[in-house]
Amino acid sequence: MLDSDVAVLDDPVGESLRGRHGHLARRLGRAAGYLPQVATFSAVSADPDPAEWADLARLLGRGEPADLFSHPATPPADWKPVFSLDGFQMIAPAGGLPGRPEAGPDAEVVELGAGDVPEMLDLAARTRPGPFWPRTRELGTYLGIRENGVLVAMAGERLRPPGWTEISAVCTAPEARGRGHAGRLVRALAARITARSERPFLHVAAANTGALALYERLGFVIRKPVTFRGFRTP
Ligand SMILES: CC(C)(COP(=O)(O)OP(=O)(O)OC[C@H]1O[C@@H](n2cnc3c(N)ncnc32)[C@H](O)[C@@H]1OP(=O)(O)O)[C@@H](O)C(=O)NCCC(=O)NCCS
Questions:
Q1: Distance CA 53, CA 31 (A)
Q2: Model confidence over 16-46: pLDDT tens digits?
Q3: Residue 178 Cα, ligand 1 centroid: separation in angstroms?
Q4: Is 39 in the same domain as 74?
Q5: Which domain holds residue 208?
Q6: Cβ–ligand 1 contact at 126 (below 6 Å)
Q7: pLDDT of 113-148, one tens digit each?
Q8: Which of 69, 85, 112, 207 is the most exposed place for a label (fewest CB within 10 A)?
């Protein structure tokens, strides 16, 4: 893999909105964002000028949240900072995650569809893996594990820069933790991603040491520290 192939991970939102997620994008000039209910992330160019920030503000509306994800650009002074969260971007090694290959379709792991969205929203609200909205499922494949018919764990595909797929919304209900559910779901997604000749990557908050340890145990390595920032448009 060339350095340029990895460089797309420096702007994963913009690369997704311009490519695989073009059908889920709204744009004005060079500014872009996901459709409401899909994701809150916005994208601007590497060095946005005032006109581009004005376009993004018009695209999002007055006094609206502007989630820049890990983009390092700082908006004009009248954009109010709302949050700043340190984290890591992690990547799977070329060739996929190490260790035992998936033995085949796992009976416990099911693909989640439109009819599962209420349960997915409920699980995300209980476990807070990161932003999850009614249409987030449309970004990729979401897998789940049910115990006695109840959805207790899920994980799915989010950002899709060329050659890569981000694994996201990894969560397990508190009463079902420590049974390997999250590990199994991440492995299942990673196997699917690797099978289509892409590489898995993900993001984790630096303070989320449990999830960080889980991803390292699975074979992900830290590519770089990132800071997630959100603002409010003027
Ligand atoms: C992080 C999270 C997804 C882990 O879910 P989980 O299903 O408990 O994860 P796993 O069971 O696969 O692995 C977790 C731990 O259980 C252990 N474990 C795995 N299988 C086990 C088993 N059969 N018996 C006992 N322990 C087991 C693992 O060793 C792992 O321990 P370690 O990583 O601390 O060494 C869950 O805690 C969660 O939902 N947290 C809140 C949301 C969140 O932060 N998501 C991540 C966003 S990036």
A1: 7
A2: 999 999 999 999 999 999 999 999 999 999 9
A3: 5
A4: yes
A5: 89-224
A6: no
A7: 999 999 999 999 999 999 999 999 999 999 999 999
A8: 207
Question: Are residues 162 and 97 part of one domain?
Answer: yes
- Biggest CA-to-CA distance, the chain: 54
Domain boundary residue, one of 32, 59, 88: 88
Would you say the CB of residue 180 lies under 6 angstroms from ligand 1?
yes
Domain boundary (29, 57, 88) is at: 88
Q: Is the CB of 44 under 6 A from ligand 1?
A: no
List the strands of the sheet with 199-205, edge to edge.
65-67, 221-232, 80-91, 199-205, 164-172, 150-157, 142-147, 109-111
